[in-house]
Amino acid sequence: xxxxxxxxxxxxxxxxxxxxxxxxxxxxxxxxxxxxxxxxxxxxxxxxxxxxxxxxxxxxxxxxxxxxxxxxxxxxxxxxxxxxxxxxxxxxxxxxxxxxxxxxxxxxxxxxxxxxxxxxxxxxxxxxxxxxxxxxxxxxxxxxxxxxxxxxxxxxxxxxxxxxxxxxxxxxxxxxxxxxxxxxxxxxxxxxxxxxxxxxxxxxxxxxxxxxxxxxxxxxxxxxxxxxxxxxxxxxxxxxxxxxxxxxxxxxxxxxxxxxxxxxxxxxxxxxxxxxxxxxxxxxxxxxxxxxxxxxxxxxxxxxxxxxxxxxxxxxxxxxxxxxxxxxxxxxxxxxxxxxxxxxxxxxxxxxx
Amino acid sequence: xxxxxxxxxxxxxxxxxxxxxxxxxxxxxxxxxxxxxxxxxxxxxxxxxxxxxxxxxxxxxxxxxxxxxxxxxxxxxxxxxxxxxxxxxxxxxxxxxxxxxxxxxxxxxxxxxxxxxxxxxxxxxxxxxxxxxxxxxxxxxxxxxxxxxxxxxxxxxxxxxxxx
Lengths: 353, 164
Ligand SMILES: [Zn+2]
Ligand SMILES: [Zn+2]
Known about the structure:
A: alpha+beta, 13 helices, globular, B: 3 domains, 7% strand
């Protein structure tokens, strides 16, 4: 069943390639479009039979669309929790999709840059992910996928309200633009409130990212739009491009420069402690791993450490997540076993360099 | 169970987190907003703005006239009250059935009540040139304000072409 999934986890995540504009600070960009099919109720009012019909309609359309013909298809409700977790960690599906109930599916391209969640909160949610600041490229790709679906499916659309969604907070464009940022220096200098203010000024939401349960980890923050009605897709994307992201990137760069110029010992302490921990620990929780990898990544980016490859660090961010760790290990591990396996994996990867 | 923040023991705990311990056990944590931010456990800012509006909207249901609360969509059977309780609509028709009640919510969440942007291809060109012109004019104003004259000139050209 998930032979394809086994291959997937060994590939590098498209959005974690560490390439693209501003990739020292902008980890990845992501755009999502929410769509529903006319003639079906929204999912909260759809019984099992209707949910299955929606899923079949969408899946058939994907399979018959040239652009999407080589996509892999998985039934989320038939996967075990470890496989679901791997998909969440790769951001191919949302946590909500993993934890939902009833018929739910996903289709994604072999490279893992585009996925279509079927029966999440809306009938279809398409998302495209890119590494670095590549919103235009992401928009171009998702727009093409949406056009291809539009040619075969009759989407629920309203002359005044635009694309109709189960939740009125998504109505209109149904778009969610998200940019994931790595802001370790702003965290060290305790200036994250600047980021909050910049986002708030533009009515954008900011949240922490990654981690088990509900905790947010490390120095990773995701910024996304909340307004979906009354502004076009391009206008919303423009806000990120021209205003918010350049501003936050500048704050982080300034903080890094200030640390380098005035508090080099404090900065080096974080970087080298992280390196020491990663190279020596025998038990490492995912929280600690994220924090250490975050500091190590910063150390590489500002040239304090030159002996480790950035891709090794980028790969470790995902390989040390609980789902990937267990899949790579080949079976389930309890909490302590995971900490042992994680520490061992990190040591072996860092010593190869 | 309006408990106190476990960390500072001063503020009321408003963040209730469930973490997994190393042994895989669930462990509850109850913190005030300040401490949760300090520990990096939550977003720096308040939750999603639009969702905040929606939540407030759902909480304020008591103010509705009874006639509103009793409105029901004949297509999917959802009542307005059910929508308010769960925050999710039942079918596309609900946007017309509950239109009057939705407008103030949309206004608050999006500061707008009319879509601009992409549309299904079956509806023609996607968006009217009027919409495009409006949009470009807004961008033009922004570019001028930002003293980005190169971009302003480029936008001016695009508007001229559309207005022909
Ligand atoms: Zn507290
Ligand atoms: Zn309805």
